[in-house]
Amino acid sequence: MHDKPLSKLAGHLLHRRPGASRPTRHRVGPDTFGLDEERVLRFADGTLDPAQEPRLAEEVAEVLPLGWSLSPRAKERLYTVTEHLGGEPRLLEWLDRHPGLPRLTARLVVLTGILDRYSDDAGVVEALRSSRAEEPLPAGLEGVLPPETDEETLSDISYRIDISYRIDELLFERHPQDAARLALATTDWLRSAARRAAPSSPGTGEMGDLMDHLHKDISEAGAAA
Questions:
Q1: What is the pTM of this model?
Q2: In whole angstroms, what is the distance from residue 171 CA to residue 144 CA?
Q3: Cα distances (angstroms) measured from residue 117 to each of 4, 5, 6, 48, 129
Q4: Are 89 and 13 in contact (CB under 8 A)?
Q5: What is the sign, positive or negative, of the torsion defined by CA atoms of 93, 84, 98, 172?
Q6: CA-to-CA distance for 225 and 220, rounded, in angstroms?
Q7: Which ranges of the chain have pLDDT less than 70?
Q8: Residues 145-198: pLDDT tens digits?
Q9: Three-class SS of residue 210?
Q10: How far is the C-alpha of 30 from the C-alpha of 78, rounded, in Å?
């Protein structure tokens, strides 16, 4: 994973905005498939067999999209792993070192965090408005973007148009390749909108650059997952 997309994120990467839509279909109790307690404790005290670390990374990747809704016990285990690694950015870097689902999940979490970061940028909102005027339903985003845009749907590109929600849902339902395809369609749309935007918008230019990085990162991770 490129350092640049991760370095652009601030705050808590593993938590979503209050009130955002959440996956609810086909849910089972998180503790029935969550983090193995003994494995977590051994990892935290440095005694975990290195051969078991990839499995722990897979378990973390499986629960990460549900971090907002885990039981207190499951949250505590995730917190233990996160703190041992040195915080949320270090957790994503650790996941990224493990091919397959952990790496793909880490890169998708970075994307959804960046979507949230730009949701209040006026230049980005205007670029998306112009893009939707030219192409109401960008390729690959049919059924995810609302058919029409207004001030409300444009004011939060991450949640009110349901991209982050849908990525989380697909990961939760064990459809990582579908999540990757949706993420790639999103990065294609946003970098295309950025290229067509006025050059005087620094936020839009930065977003386009980050989408280029993330498109490559997610494409590589999805191919290996």
A1: 0.83
A2: 15
A3: 14, 11, 12, 36, 17
A4: yes
A5: negative
A6: 9
A7: 2, 6-33, 147-162, 199-200
A8: 776 555 554 444 543 446 888 898 899 888 999 999 999 999 999 999 888 877
A9: helix
A10: 12
